[in-house]
Amino acid sequence: MTAGFHSADAPESADSHEGSNPRSASNPRPEPAGARRFAGQVALITGASRGIGLGVAQRLSAEGATVILTARKEEALAEAVAQFSEGTALGIAGKSDDPAHRAEVFDTIAEKFGRLDVLVTNVGINPVYGPTIDIDLDAARKIFEVNVLGTLAWVQGAVHHEQLGFRQNRGRVVSISSVAGERPSTGIGFYGISKAAVSHLTKTLAVELGPDIRVNAVAPAVVKTNFATALYEGREDEVAAAYPVKRLGTPEDIGAAVAYLSSSDAEWITAQVLTADGGVLTAGGSA
Predict the structure, then answer these.
(1) pLDDT digits over 50-98, tens only?
(2) Residues labelled as active-site residues
(3) Average pLDDT value over all residues in the chain
(4) How wide is the angle at C-alpha 252 spanned by C-alphas 16 and 281, nearest 5°?
(5) Torsion of CA 67, 69, 74, 80, to 10 degrees
(6) Theoretical Cys-Cys bridge with 49: which of 71, 134, 163, 246, CB 3.0 to 4.6 Å?
(7) Domain limits of the chain?
(8) What is the chain written as a DSSP string?
């Protein structure tokens, strides 16, 4: 369902990991460098009612983009969109793995803005915890369908929609992968398998879609969102001690990484998976 909570006006022409979005009053974020890198551009962020997706949307918006947010729950999405300045954000609620929802999103963007410049695929699920050898195969299929096929479907929709001009606009795709896809992680093995597939899909699409479209991914370690609560709740200091930076990630950290990969500053970067993990993998840790 389309929800024009803060319906955005068409911009001027120019060359989910969902969870809470905590901010640290003792460690405020600096203003983004090159603060208008996305002026006149349109960015679609899936799974963006909270957590990483919302953090990404806020960063791209702060740098001038008109942002379209998607999420399953209309009320949560409305609350997220209300955080943006009037006329800068649009929310469209629906299930990410529903083809009709994806079609509505792309058609709405085409109708209201006539272009798409940045696609951030953030939707990801992990409904099970435990040994991979014991996973219910229906649950495994659902994880793969949402995390991997869903990512591919969003990119297909952006590239093939004739009215969005994604290729002509030198579109950029950034998918949210995970360090769990780089190294086995206890209890979330199949989630990691799906994210390893997302990382490889990123590289494959980058080769196929270049030179007009750049495709990259960001692979976070533990980021402080509701999605990752089970990995640190009640023992945050203990978990953070394994990180050389001695803290967990925040949605703003991932927003900054995505903004860089989506910007003209990264024009020569494609087919890359940027590990945003505070150094934990190098230090011998895991997700």
Answers:
(1) 999 999 999 999 999 999 999 999 999 999 999 999 999 999 999 999 9
(2) 191
(3) 90
(4) 85
(5) -60
(6) 71
(7) 2-6+36-276
(8) -EE-TTPPPPPPP-----------TTSPPPPPSSTTTTTT-EEEESS-SSHHHHHHHHHHHHTT-EEEEEES-HHHHHHHHTTSPTTSEEEEES-TT-HHHHHHHHHHHHHHTS---EEEE--------B-GGG--HHHHHHHHIIIIIHHHHHHHHHHH-TTT-TTTTT-EEEEE--GGGTS--TTBHHHHHHHHHHHHHHHHHHHHHTTT-EEEEEEES-BSSGGGGGGTTT-HHHHHTTSTTSS-B-HHHHHHHHHHHHSGGGTT--S-EEEESTTTTTTT---
* Cis peptide leading into residue 131 (ω within 30°): no
**Confidence tier at 17 by pLDDT (50, 70, 90):** low
pTM summary value: 0.88
- pLDDT tens figures, 44-57: 999 999 999 999 99
Q: Please report, as a single letter, which amino acid is at residue 13.
A: S
> How is residue 74 written in tokens?
């209309």
CATH number for the segment(s) 2-6+36-276:
3.40.50.720
